[in-house]
Amino acid sequence: MVRGLFIYMDRESSPRVRVSRQSCTAIPCYRRTTSTGRIIMNQNKVLSVRNLVLIAMFSALAAVLETIQVAVPFAPPFYKLDFAELPVLIGGFAMGPAQAALIAIVKNLLKLLLNGTSTYYVGELGNIIGSCMFSVPAALIYRRHKTKKTAMVTLAAGVICAIVGAVFVNCAITLPFYAKVAFGGIENIIAMGTKINPAVTNLYTFAIFMIVPFNLVKCGLNAIVTALVYKHVSVIIHAGVHREKKTENTAA
């Protein structure tokens, strides 16, 4: 038996809050009721109904955008440019870092369900880690100070974190495994990099001349588009929240 904390607020009386404890069989939960007894769930929960709808919507959009990929001339063909991080960033700014991580995970699960994997799942794992490294730090900083200047700083910080994370994940996890199962060894991937840029001679130079430039361009473009469209999208998102709150207050 778990003790749940319930908070009762009378809209028509003074702003005093009467707190009582009541037994419940579920995990502790927090609820707010009006004088009519109508329960209003906390909209700030990670998995509130509103957030679940937005997570599903942004995840589906990200999965669609990930199917539109463009090869770049300065990186091997298995590195493709897309704008799938755009919904992850917008969702993180609108809801928070935890929701951004969930969008990144669901996006890749949808990709696996629809198209399967051509990278023995290491590509999807690397995508989840890289996406979280990009969006979670940006959403964490932006949540504290929601200004235009802060948004620029957070996006720049997200790009830097994503590049650092991409170098680590590619060099330590995805490239060694992917090279072994699909390319016959890491030296063959390095040779692909050497054909593009003769300065690539080992994994270290591959990271400098292949991984860093590719992620700088990809994350930079996603960050720029996010900066251009987020305020317009956030108006629509928060307009829905305001209408919902207005309806609740009217019903109360």
Provide a concise account of the structure shown.
This protein is of the alpha+beta class and 252 residues long.
Task: Describe the 3D structure.
Residues 1-43 have low confidence and may be disordered. The chain has helices spanning 49-66, 85-95, 97-115, 122-144, 148-183, 186-196, 203-251, and strands at 2-8, 18-24, 31-33, 39-41, 70-71, 80-81. The longest helix has 49 residues, at 203-251. 66% of the residues lie in helices and 10% in strands. It is globular and about 55 Å long. The chain has 2 domains: 2-42, no CATH class; 49-243, Arp2/3 complex 21 kDa subunit ARPC3 (Orthogonal Bundle). Helix 4 packs antiparallel against helix 5 (148-183). The chain has 252 residues and is α+β, with helices and mostly antiparallel strands. The strands form 2 sheets. It has a 4-stranded mixed β-sheet, with no helix packed on it. The two termini are 32 Å apart. The protein contains 7 helices and 6 strands; from the N terminus they run ββββαββαααααα.
Mean pLDDT: 81
Total helices: the number is: 7
Q: How many domain regions?
A: 2
* Secondary-structure content class: alpha+beta
Q: What portion of the residues fall into strands of 2 or more residues?
A: 5-15%
- SSE ordering: EEEEHEEHHHHHH
- Number of distinct beta strands: 6
What is the CATH fold-level name of the largest domain? Answer: Arp2/3 complex 21 kDa subunit ARPC3
Low-confidence stretches: 1-43
Largest sheet: 4 strands, mixed
CATH class of the largest domain: Mainly Alpha
Share in helix: 55-70%
| Strand order in space, largest sheet | 2-1-3-4
* General form: globular
CATH architecture identity of the largest domain: Orthogonal Bundle
